[in-house]
Amino acid sequence: MIQSSPPRFALLVFTALIMVWTALLALPFSSRSGEMTPFADALFTAVSAICVTGLSTVDMAVHWSFFGEIVILVGLQIGGIGVLTLASILGLTVTRRLGLRQRLLAASDTNPMRMGRGVSESQAVGLGEIGGLLAAVATSLLVIEVVLTALIMPSLMAAGYDFWHALWNSFYLAASAFTNTGFVPLVGGLEPFANDFYLLSVIAVGVFLGAIGFPVIFALYRYVIGGGWRAHKRLGLHTKLTLTTTLIFVVFGWLAITALEWNNARTLGAQDVGQTLFNAGYMSIMTRSGGLGIVDPADMNGSTLLVMDMLMFVGGGSASTAGGIKVTTIAVLFLAAYAEARGYQDMQAFDRRIPNEVLRVAISVLIWGATIVLVSTVTLMHMTGRSLDVVLFEVISAFGTCGLTTGLSAEVSDPGKYVLAATMWAGRVGTVTLAAAVAATSRSRLFRLPEERPIVG
Asked: Which Pfam families would you find in this protein's record (predicted)?
């Protein structure tokens, strides 16, 4: 299975890790009270950690012991890197080399379309560059989280934390930000730091870097050391699409949240102009899949929740620590619509042609994601009796592994927790697995059926 279908192998390992983490978190010494954590809460937290979501049914700051926090922290690091990528990094560390099979294994984790037959090597990261990508993943994870930890520490120490507690909580926050998980180990969450623009800016940068994806970080690194602006053509199509679309969605979310919450006294309406603009921009970045919010979504207008639903559903970049259907997926769909409107035969972007099989995968991911959200929303609405805007927000936050919440996760019964946990699992591994399955089913035929066109539109 490892050789024939790495995505299926990753799915099984992913699920097995969730079961192991559930067992570890259910142990008595994982909680501060010394009592066993109920199975539903342990499972929900394990799924949320491994799927780097950040939703929780217990108070993360007071429920877990130091051992429990270590288990959660290790889980979100594994989930953020990716199972196959982590396995490849460990293999590279031990053997000091990567064979073809190991390269294909790692490549399929960063790009599920590699599983297709006859796949062109005109990829965002070529097979010859996989070793460099794995080194970039390990290096960026270590360097970025260490730098974020050092930058976060002064704010926590100024807030009264001693050195060791500030160090641990800073590293926890740094890992939570870069992996786009959204867990906060601090009592009261980030609310006491709502006016600390420095700390929030550091967290926002960490979330943004994690959301653009390791291939983009790798490409930017090569771009910087390869000649800067003079080497503009060195940036590939995937990098350009990811950065452009991400910035467009961040700016759109920033403007939309500012406009819709401007007069809402419960959220941004009671703040001055500068704080309103900053907090709106911060919340827009958090919809990339960060989840480290400072404004309670339960107090927001329904129109704002709908905008954030769209942003969370899109999520971050492919092969990143973020969730959602990914910005490149939505970019390809828009490019296809634009090409159709202009009468072009091919999709084009940045002087490159995008093949039709990419559109096929993008449509499949969109339909699969919408189906998951629809089924989960209907099920939870029936279970809880809550309104559509609240339930839909919670479901999309779970599917997009975002972690922003209206409080519904902590209120639902055990069956509701299982539904949300399944939504997180499907949102993290389902779309990738489906994309790989669709790509892998490409096969040639010796005949073609007669053509007939149905009426569309």
From this structure: TrkH (PF02386)
